[in-house]
Amino acid sequence: MPARWVGVMSTIGLYALSIAVALGLAGVLVSLTGASPLDAVQAIFQGSLSDASALGLTLDKAAPLLIVAVGTCVATSAGLFSIGQEGQVVIGATVGATVAIYLHGPGPLVLIVTLFGAALGGAAWAAVAALLFYWRGVPVVISTLLLIYIAYQVVFYAVTQPWFLMETGRNVAAPQSDQIRPDAWLPRIGEYPGLNFSLMVVIAVVLAIGTKVVLDRTTWGFRLRMLGLNRNAARRAGVSAVLLGSGALMISGAFAGLAGGALLTGGNHRLQPGISENVGWDGLLVALVARNNPVVAIPVAFFFGVLRAGGGFLASTGVPRYIVDVVTAILVLAVVFPPAYQYLRREARARRLARSLAKAGGSA
Amino acid sequence: MIESLALILASSLRLATPLMFAGLGEYMAEKAGMINISIEGMMLAGAFSAILGATVTGSPVLGLVFGILAGVMIAFVHATFSYRLTVNTYVVGLTLNLLVLGLTSFLLDTLDLADSQLSKFEIPFLSDLPLVGQAVFNQRWPAYLLWILIPTVWFVMYRTRWGLDMRAIGENPAAVDATGINVLKRQRQGLLLAGAFSGLGGAYLSVAEVGLFNQNMTAARGYVVIAAVIFGGWTIKGTIAGCLLFGAADAMRLALPALGFTLNAQLLIASPYILALVALVVFARRSRAPAAYGRPFVRGLT
Hints:
The complex is a heterodimer of chains A (364) and B (302).
Chain A: H1 3-32, H2 37-48, H3 52-77, H4 85-102, H5 107-136, H6 140-160, E1 188-190, E2 196-198, H7 199-217, H8 219-229, H9 231-236, H10 241-268, H11 279-289, H12 297-314, H13 323-363
Antiparallel strand pairs in A: 1-2
Helix pairs in contact in A: 1-13, 2-12, 3-7, 3-10, 3-11, 3-12, 4-5, 4-6, 4-10, 4-11, 5-6, 5-10, 7-8, 11-12
Chain B: H1 2-31, H2 39-57, H3 60-83, H4 89-110, E1 120-122, H5 133-137, E2 138-140, H6 145-159, H7 161-171, H8 173-178, H9 183-210, H10 221-231, H11 236-259, H12 265-283
Antiparallel strand pairs in B: 1-2
Helix pairs in contact in B: 1-6, 1-7, 1-9, 1-10, 1-11, 2-3, 2-4, 2-9, 2-10, 3-4, 3-9, 6-7, 7-9, 10-11, 10-12, 11-12
């Protein structure tokens, strides 16, 4: 067997091993509850893939994750690690709800403006982080993280103020906005009760492929990647780090905001403080697992969608649905482990080689 | 008025205590250039394990020990992934936070946990002082550990070789590496210590302050702690002051409506984060942050 194949096989083996360990751990946890892990897997399958309506639910759950992930890929390509997608999703949903409730006009127009507004809202929220970074050198990780928790309060504020978005005929226990007009809801594709899913699924896939093309095949994408790979080289080549970097951050924010708009117009149809359902966090994880490749993010987001859709079904087997979050997190760790481990081994081998060479040189 | 002031003071201090424990650990980690995002997970794991330990052993003191160990365990995983292997520290930290949140919520639904609380210890005479007496000198006893830990952390960071290494790593890891010190090993050690302190903070929250564990009990307090260290301009004094301030903001949120004031609750909840952002804007360029702040150390040309 050629040496190249040995390398490939050992990579695949390492991935398989670490994913197996991750799933094994999850299985042990499920056994703790007294349920059988097989039943849990079956429940997840039933809730997510077993029939057309379950599949539609999975696609609906995967679409916002994919949109967030694609945006994350753009920012990461520019070498900026933003973790504030969750906040941008929430702000996007808030701006979207404001537009959808206060704008009068034909339904489709309201829907388009709502989605645009949501994207702009997310972009503006990301722009704060970009501004702080390029103006004062505030680390993007920290500012975006802090902005999430400010965003949570902004949405809570919005739905508790009568002059703003609070539901008419107030309900203080569970604050939320009024329902948005049904003619401004995202249209659904397919037929009920067969396979049907939100238009957002199509938009998400188109965005993923489009972003991949833009990143790989355009001058702008090339500059962006150059900036991410080597700031100094990029600057020498005349790339403006400030313009390009803040642009990438804002695009990432716009995608997250759009995902918030999708959750609003395609799912809840009203603004609630918990509208994001951690879509921002999980979307970020999708991008990480997909190693910042928007096209690879499509199957990864689908898989996360399976877990999310199936998680709701788990409760019937007596396994708390939180197991889905645990499995997601363990899997992420299992996927990031092999390349890092191989890197470390290569380093160690190189060091050993250098040492033995040095020794040989000394004796000669 | 005096009475309600004393009450607010007491509740501020009570809410600030877990933050201060974790803040000391985060301070050490940040001095060595690490932004330890997984502090939230460490605190949450500490809070859960403390109650779990107290349930299993029947002793809340052992629960506290369990909490510390849980924090160290999270830190160990994080350190192995990010500072032995080279996985991005934010990726690992974030994933660990989600993992701990999911795991503790899952186990809370699965296991039967007993309520368990450490006793208060009233320091005679001092606790009779007006205004501050009850607040400062009548607390759950682990709170007094702070009086030992704060000077200890100062001593370790500013009077030992190890502390010097840590601070130097925060400023210029390449230079430290060149002197033959294993940078990643020091960072791993710092992270483990941060884990112990954060675990203690979380354990204090559950087994001392509240006496039980709720789902997502720490509720982003870990991030408040990061904010407190930044707000404090990377000094011990400042970190403690930041924790006290954010504890007070939390206390105000609970107390103001009762006192008849109407200040916007959302603004108060968001205030630690807003203040931290403002502090970052002010401090970030004043070179008070460690020079290598948040940048991973990779041996080679820079």
